[in-house]
Specification:
- The protein is of the alpha/beta class.
- It has a single domain, classed as Rossmann fold (3-Layer(aba) Sandwich), CATH 3.40.50.
- Helix content is 38%, strand content 14%.
- It has an eight-stranded mixed beta sheet with strand order 1-2-4-3-5-6-7-8, sandwiched between helices.
- Strand 1 and strand 2 form a beta hairpin.
- It starts with a helix and ends with a helix.
């Protein structure tokens, strides 16, 4: 086996992280001429929060607990599909295809921390996208969605190769030519990373990216969870992550020692214990630095929409003031005053349902598709 082959297998397995090999020092071209028109149209539909859910916490909880049980029934016939992204690494996705899939654009959805293909924002966006004419692929990150048995490794924010593999398989095997990517929270950060860490390897078929409440700077996001007012999120995340490790141990007992699992009380502790070794990082600060898309925003050459609320309790807004966002003509930033974390429950003033961010994500991808068609 050649050294190159070994390296590629380790990258796929999550044991190595692809180095930041190549970036453009400055934008060398411009986005399509219609991109500014898309930005203008999106900005004519501002987010107006539901009057009963004004604050960041209220918006976050409202979106999560809003009764939408019908969504799971709407997707019960979606096709399960396994993507073999590397040796012993398999990802489970759920796909819904238009009757003639080759004639339709395809939207890949990527969830956030401790989410899955059944997260309510994934189901809601998928239904809207399918109704708008998209094939839809809801992707589970490694071990998520009850898939602990499919790979010995855990998911983390640096696994952009997994997303790249899925896109390439859809292009090469399924012959799909119009791919769009929408990620939420950690999945949003990963989607941006894919576009910016090495623009030359981004497939031409990837036409656009939408990132909702993306964790573009992992360190401050980890710190934000530790705030006293965020105790509920922290408790929920830590319980879920510890239970995930316990389930992993059942399938891979030689890899997961759970004897002192109760001592892991923070997200930083968890990342230091499991993600650093699993992902090939030097330490937790190295992980947070290398897996944060903030450092590569200026290198994105794929049309990208970032939607971020200034009152997000889990993702600090300061990184979104970075000049690299405003100076990159490929990025549209919709920075709302309200909305919480993947919340955006609206007053329903646009003739749509109340889930404003789902509508904007699908609208962005649809507008890009319509304008890019000959």
């Amino acid at each position: 086996m050649s050294t190159e082959t070994k390296v590629e297998e380790q990258l796929a397995a999550g044991k190595l992280v692809r180095p930041f090999a190549h970036v453009h020092s400055a934008q060398t071209d411009s986005p399509p001429s219609y991109f500014s028109e898309i930005a203008r149209r999106l900005k004519t539909k501002p987010f107006i929060p539901h009057p009963s859910f004004v604050g960041g916490h209220a918006q976050t909880f409202a979106a999560y607990y809003w009764p939408r049980g019908f969504l799971k029934h709407a997707h019960r016939r979606d096709e399960p599909r396994i993507f073999e992204v590397g040796p012993d690494v398999r990802l489970l996705a759920h796909c819904r295809w238009q009757k003639d899939r080759l004639k339709h654009p395809t939207l890949i959805l990527v969830h956030g921390l401790e989410g899955s293909t059944t997260s309510v924002y994934m189901l809601g966006t998928a239904l809207k996208a399918f109704d708008a004419g998209f094939n839809v692929v809801r992707l589970n990150l490694r071990t998520c969605g009850k898939t602990e048995h499919l790979t010995p490794t855990l998911y983390h924010g640096g696994l952009t190769n997994d997303l790249l593999f899925v896109i390439r398989e859809l292009v090469e095997r399924d012959r799909l030519s119009q791919i769009f990517l929408t990620g939420f929270s950690l999945g949003g950060n990963m989607s941006i990373m894919l576009a910016g860490e090495d623009p030359d390897r981004v497939p031409h078929e990837l036409k656009g990216i939408c990132a909702v409440s993306p964790t573009i700077d992992l360190g401050p996001c980890s710190d934000a969870i530790e705030r006293r007012e965020n105790w509920h999120y922290k408790w929920s995340f830590m319980r879920s992550m510890r239970n995930r490790v316990r389930r992993k141990r059942k399938f891979f007992p030689e890899l997961y020692d759970t004897r002192d699992l109760r001592r892991i009380r923070t997200l930083r502790d968890f990342d230091a214990r499991y993600v650093v070794a699993d992902g090939g990082y030097k330490d937790v600060d190295d992980y947070y630095e290398r897996a944060s898309s903030l450092r590569i925003l200026s290198h994105i050459h794929t049309p990208t929409l970032i939607i971020q609320a200034q009152d997000d309790p889990l993702v600090p807004f300061d990184p979104f003031r970075d000049p690299s966002i405003q100076e990159n003509p490929y990025i549209i930033l919709l920075a709302t005053e309200r909305g919480g974390h993947v919340g955006f429950v609206s007053a329903n003033t646009l003739g749509e349902d109340r889930f404003w961010v789902e509508n904007r994500a699908v609208e962005f991808c649809k507008l890009l598709h319509e304008h890019s068609m000959p």
